[in-house]
Amino acid sequence: MTVLVLTRASDATSDLVISELSDRGVPVHRLDHSDFPDRLTVGAHIDPEARGWSGIVRGQHRDLSLDEVRAVYYRRPSPPRTHPDLTEADARWAASEARAGFGGLLAALDCLWVNHPSRNAHAEIKPVALAAARRCGLDVPRTLITNDPADAREFVDSLPGRVAAYKGLGPGGPLGDDADAHALWTTQVRADEINDTVSLTAHQFQQWIPKAYEVRLTAVGRQLFAAEIHAGSDAARVDFRTDYDSLTYRPCDVPGSIAAGMNALLDDLQLRYAACDFLVSQDDGRWYLVDVNPNGQWAFIPELRAPITHALAALLGGHRP
User: Fold this and answer.
1) What is the mean pLDDT of residues 290-294?
2) pTM of the prediction?
3) Given a cut of 80, is residue 319 above it in pLDDT?
4) What percent of the chain has pLDDT above 90?
5) Which candidate in 35, 45, 304, 309 could, as Cys together with 39 as Cys, close a disulfide (CB 3.0–4.6 Å)?
6) Hey, what long-range contacts does 199-204 have (CB within 8 A, 24 or more apart)?
7) Distance of alpha carbon 266 from alpha carbon 292, whole angstroms
8) Which residues are 273's β-sheet partners?
9) How far apart are CA 260 and CA 214, in angstroms?
10) Which pLDDT value is given to residue 321?
């Protein structure tokens, strides 16, 4: 029985897990959606007596039987690649059919997923994730989602210090003149900085939490791995993603209430893996959840790289933590 790893050709994080699975003697098959249809051929069927799809994915060097997949590690596969001779309209149609057909067959695999793409997509919706966190007993900052400038100004004025964190709701940022998406970092905002352009789309404002540090808390099944993230620059203290070189990490314990809330959150969102970001208040040490990343990075914290690799390999290989 095989563990299927779905990711792009260059993915050092997946390489760690694949190497660990191989060391454990677990068969692994790596695929990327962009290999279809040029380098992959699929033939699958479903019969009246069958419980699901059967068939073969044929590659240039190896074949994969859909019946043999017992677990899928869904990392970051590329989109399907279409033939260069197709017109733009035909290429859009072909890519859509590839996602629905080839991607759909993989998504239909009845096995353990870490995580199923549909569960990732659900959990990546910020209003869904924050509501689930509250249901599960985790603290979140006061949050407003609005397109009303007056509501936004009133909300910010009501906060301690009369300052809010402005954060994007989606995975990317606005398009620049070059049509490429630009990263939208967390920024501080005051009421008098909010103008009428807020009315043009939805915006998220959160209570600004003066923090001692942040925590990246990674869950693999029922195992939790946490590290403090200490910012070494002004930019990183606002959004640590802006200056990774200034960061230092320190593994830390997880309070019992946070552990219980995290386990409940994974159950609520039907996830087996998540990387969550918490702000730890400098005033009272309270942990505030600000982001749920169902497919978040974890290998960037050196001290947790090996333990998380082992936990993922154990989960995918059939040993429940």
Assistant:
1) 96
2) 0.91
3) no
4) 84
5) 35
6) 199/147, 199/148, 199/149, 200/147, 201/147, 202/145, 202/146, 202/147, 202/169, 203/145, 203/146, 203/147, 203/152, 203/166, 203/169, 204/126, 204/143, 204/144, 204/145, 204/166, 204/167, 204/168, 204/169
7) 10
8) 220
9) 19
10) 42
Place of tokens 């060391």: 23
Distance CA 22, CA 307 (A): 16
Spatial neighbors of 79 by CB under 8 A, at least 6 apart, are 33, 34, 95, 99
In the chain, % of residues over pLDDT 70: 95
Total residues belonging to the chain: 321
pLDDT-derived band at 320 (thresholds 50, 70, 90) equals very low
Which residues, 6 or more positions from 307, have their beta carbon under 8 angstroms from its beta carbon?
225
DSSP one-letter string for 77-135: PPPP---TTS-HHHHHHHHHHHIIIIIHHHHT--SEEES-HHHHHHHTSHHHHHHHHHH
- pLDDT value at position 106? 96
Angle 256-269/126-135 helices, nearest 10 degrees? 130
Structure tokens at 141: 């900052």
Q: What are the structural domains, with CATH classification, of the chain?
A: 2-114 (3.40.50), 142-207 (no CATH), 209-316 (3.30.470.20)
Kindly report the number of other CB atoms within 10 A of residue 131's CB atom: 13
Q: Which residues pair with residue 45 across a beta bridge?
A: 54
